[in-house]
Specification:
Length: 605
């Protein structure tokens, strides 16, 4: 989550946007699961609608990969670790002759599963993945660049990493071990992603014009899951999901020169079309040895047209102001049908909606001196309304827009010689119509919908610290305290009052820290630790769906020089057992990675 706002599993738009090389991703479930070689990663906090074509209502993760090198460079990486993990990476960058240059990255990895299925006598969550990212650059003149970017990713996995919780009532499903299951269905997850984009850039005296056009096809075919996590035929429940999404975007961006003087600005126009279709089949027992099946077919189409802009004015040497805004228009429609072998067919259901939104933002920064600066920001972040395909009831097929008024104040301090720095910030967000996942299994339904909680407040304090006491040694640490709770939310099905409860998926405390020490002659050693506080995974804050706080410690030791790097690593050294996701519908959790060790070798030519 970013400042109390998170990404729901299906259908609801993401709160945190995701950009790679100026290309936006669509819904959170279609975000890349592997990272290519990155030049830098930027985390933009708070509403980001005024700075990007694709909206980020609560924040934006921006990743930039490295551009082409001036001379030909080739890199090769090999890795081997626990659970027979094997990985390989290849990279190439440099000129191609004339006005052309390139970058190329390729990865492949595979491992055995972490979860042992004792009924089938095998590990079921094996993983195999590969990907290619290729860029062709053309610079016909100094002030112009064209770029063709192609991304292909593929994952062929086993079952989803789910094991039964202690409260699971299916006979024999709970084993008492996070990494053991007694399922009679192995499960399968198959993912494909293809993305192509064309980028144009032209520099003028007044600034820079950019054009980015992209197309992405994402496909899940299939995902099969044993929902009962057991091997007793009378309680068999299964799910098969096939889903695909086509996402097309066009963005025109205008930016001021870097040395524009007291006024810097960015503005743009954005257009996107998204088509998401699915075919799901769920089977479940209805008593006395009888079973029912429910098949849902759906197609959701969304068109988004937006204009955005922001400017920063340096009023004095110490004081600067920022103001921005975004105008969005969304047109969304859904067609669905459901055929239940026990209750009958619904026929074709069609829904549509359209609306326009305005999201302003502003802020100021005051430099007390060269080492200390203060800032404050405020803005609106809006997640548009939409539809969920997994509801037969027209009343709950749609959900309303979520509006967050986000506010932040902070201080940045650094030493005169920049050998240490720290930042402290506080935030307070008032969120109306918070979009919340809700399963209706407990009221005799298989529906999975998005509800709107009337009022949510998220507030907290975060701090970051960096210290380099000597050139060879560096420490980093970050800590955050967060209180995100329902101010006004009554479950419309159970009529339970959840006012004052913690919003699911929002830990009350997070912390991370680490160090790296470079020894003489190329040797280095480092370690990191992260702590996640108590987290609830349902609105009722049930104890059976709560993950207590936990700490994960990693370490690495190795040797590097200009053309060689060898790293020995260990992750989760204390073999901490924890769930990083809990599904309250099926009383199951997804355990975090166990203790693993490995070695990596990276070469450059």
């Amino acid at each position: 989550t970013f400042l109390g706002q998170g990404n729901t599993v299906f259908f609801s738009p993401p709160a945190v946007g995701y950009y790679v090389d100026d290309v936006p991703s669509s819904d959170a479930y279609a975000y890349p699961s592997e990272f290519m070689g990155m030049d830098r990663v930027l985390f933009h906090r708070g509403p980001q609608g005024s700075g990007f074509g694709r909206n980020g209502a609560a924040g934006m993760i921006e990743i930039v990969t490295a551009g082409p090198s001036e001379v030909q460079e080739t890199t090769l990486g090999l890795e081997y670790g626990s659970y027979d993990y094997m990985g390989a990476r290849f990279g190439s960058s440099g000129p191609l002759g004339g006005d052309f240059s390139h970058t190329l990255q390729f990865y492949y990895n595979e491992r055995d599963g972490y979860v042992k299925n004792t009924f089938l006598d095998r590990h079921t969550d094996d993983r195999e993945a590969m990907g290619i990212l290729a860029n062709l650059y053309w610079n016909p003149r100094e002030d112009m660049e064209w770029r063709l970017r192609v991304l292909v990713e593929q994952a062929r996995d086993g079952s989803q990493r789910l094991t039964a919780l202690p409260g699971n009532m299916i006979p024999g499903s709970y084993t008492g071990d996070l990494f053991t299951v007694r399922s009679d269905l192995a499960g399968e997850t198959s993912l494909d992603r293809y993305q192509i984009s064309l980028h144009g850039r032209r520099d003028f005296d007044w600034g820079t014009f950019k054009s980015i056009t992209s197309y992405q096809h994402w496909e899940l075919d299939p995902s099969t899951v044993d929902l009962d996590l057991g091997s007793v035929p009378d309680f068999a429940q299964t799910s098969r999901i096939m889903q695909e999404q086509d996402y097309e975007t066009h963005e025109f961006r205008f930016e001021s020169p870097e040395d524009a003087g007291p006024l810097a600005w960015r503005a743009g126009l954005f257009f996107s079309e998204k088509d998401t279709s699915g075919d799901t089949l769920r089977t479940f027992p209805v008593g006395m040895g009888f079973f029912a099946s429910d098949r849902t077919l759906f197609d959701i189409e969304e068109t988004n047209v937006a204009g955005y802009g922001r400017m920063t004015y340096q009023a004095t040497e110490q004081l600067s102001f920022e103001a921005g805004g975004r105008v969005d228009y969304y047109d969304t429609s859904m067609s669905r049908s459901s055929d239940n072998s026990f209750f009958g067919a619904t026929g074709v259901q069609k829904y549509s909606t359209d609306d326009a939104y305005f999201s302003p933002s502003g802020g100021l920064r005051y430099a007390v001196n060269d080492q200390v600066s203060l800032y404050a920001t405020t803005g609106l972040g809006i997640k548009p309304k939409g539809f969920t395909a997994f509801s037969n009831n027209p009343t709950y097929a749609g959900f309303d827009e979520e509006t967050a008024w986000a506010n932040e104040i902070g201080i940045d301090v650094r030493s005169p010689n920049d050998d240490w720095s720290f930042a402290v910030r506080g935030f307070w967000n008032e969120i109306d119509d918070y979009q919340l996942n809700r399963s209706l299994k407990d009221v005799g339904s298989l529906d999975f919908i998005i509800l709107n909680a009337d009022k949510v407040t998220s507030r907290g304090v975060e701090a970051e610290f960096r210290w380099r006491p000597v050139e060879q040694l560096q420490f980093q640490a970050a800590v955050g305290f967060q209180d995100t709770e329902f101010d006004d939310f009554t479950d419309p099905f159970t009529m339970a009052d959840y006012d004052g409860n913690t919003v699911p998926f929002t830990p009350d405390f997070t912390a991370a820290g680490g160090f790296r020490y470079d020894l003489p002659c190329g040797w280095f050693v480092g370690s990191t630790a992260r702590m996640i506080g108590e987290t609830y995974y349902d609105a009722a804050n049930s104890s059976e769906f709560r993950q207590d706080d936990y700490v994960v410690v990693d370490a690495q030791f190795g040797y590097e020089r200009d053309d060689l790097r060898v790293t020995l690593y260990g992750r989760n050294l204390c073999d901490e057992g924890y769930y990083n996701f809990i599904n309250d519908q099926i009383y199951a959790g997804s355990p975090g990675d166990p203790q693993v060790f490995g070695v990596k070798v990276d070469l450059s030519f």
